[in-house]
Amino acid sequence: MPDPAPSAAPFDRADLRAAFGRFATGVTVVTTCTKAGAPAGFTANSFTSVSLDPPLLLVCIGTTSRNLALFRDGEGFAVNILAADQTDLAGRFASRGDRDRFAEVPWQAGLTGSPLLEGCAAVFDCTRHEVVAAGDHLILVGRITALRRSPRPGLIFADGRYTRPAADPALRAGAILHRAGKVLLLAGRDGGYRLPLSAPQDSTGAAIAALETDLAGAGPARVAWDSPYAIFDSADGLTRNFFFHGELAAGSDLPEGAVMVAPEALPTLAVADPGARAMLRRYAEEIGARRFGLYVDTAGPHGAVLPLTVPRSAPFQPEDIVQ
């Protein structure tokens, strides 16, 4: 049966909003700062790429927004495209009232002074190119002066709900490294610890290269890789983590913030990531016998540890796992 023809009958704002909502969009947080340097921002899904040459984009701001004058008259603004795990930021910057939207939100000032939020799928730092009045909104056209992008998938908004794209997870490579009977950990400014882990990458090879760059620190870090140690997805399903076991050569440089910890202390350390905590507890048990297993995710609530008993005819390299 064919779809009915569009009706000429009047429609109200609710009908129009619902029809607009059928178009799935990304979600952005648009930011700028006052002359005194105070940050300001709002959530918007009215974002459009406009031109490659010159590089232009546009976003819309409602004429009733409390930040209208700041964005209309300011010299620049930034568009932060939220990643799939940043629904909390979308809600924070859409909220009303006097709440400090930037409290505990990590950001850095861009070239225009506008806040660039951390962890986004992409960010665009723009100067004001043109402002166009359009009904109950203003169209802010920005000329892009700088950008940053990541392999993180973007957040999607459709039919009044947030959702995530169906995509393969980004890949990260991590390491459990020992030397002289101790294990290398990275100390955080909050007093906690973490294992070396690369930023999300598009391929396993790129993740391994990023890990080895991070390990180099102030100089070359010589690692004799022993075996893969764990393969698992993050709790949010956005990243797949490959951890490798190896030994640091004596006298090799350590990355910034690195500390060497005795195995018996590993189970009691303050480690925020639950996957890393579990690996360190297992490592503390396995290192005494020098018999390590490979942890892999399974369909059930608990993963499986597979014994690594096959002798190797040549030294293991992390790249072997993707051959």
From TrEMBL:
Name the species this protein comes from: Salipiger marinus
Q: Which Pfam families match?
A: Flavin_Reduct
Task: Enumerate the Gene3D superfamilies for this protein.
Answer: Electron Transport, Fmn-binding Protein, Chain A (2.30.110.10), Nucleoside Triphosphate Pyrophosphohydrolase (3.90.79.10)
Q: Which UniProt keywords apply?
A: Oxidoreductase
InterPro entries named among the record's database cross-references: Flavin_Rdtase-like_dom, NADH-dep_flavin_reductase, Split_barrel_FMN-bd
Indicate yes or no for the key word Cytoplasm.
no
Task: Quote one Gene Ontology molecular function term.
Answer: riboflavin reductase (NADPH) activity
Is Oxidoreductase found in the keyword set? yes
Q: Which domain of life is it from?
A: Bacteria
Q: Where is the Flavin reductase like domain?
A: 20-164
Q: What is this protein called?
A: NADH-FMN oxidoreductase RutF, flavin reductase (DIM6/NTAB) family
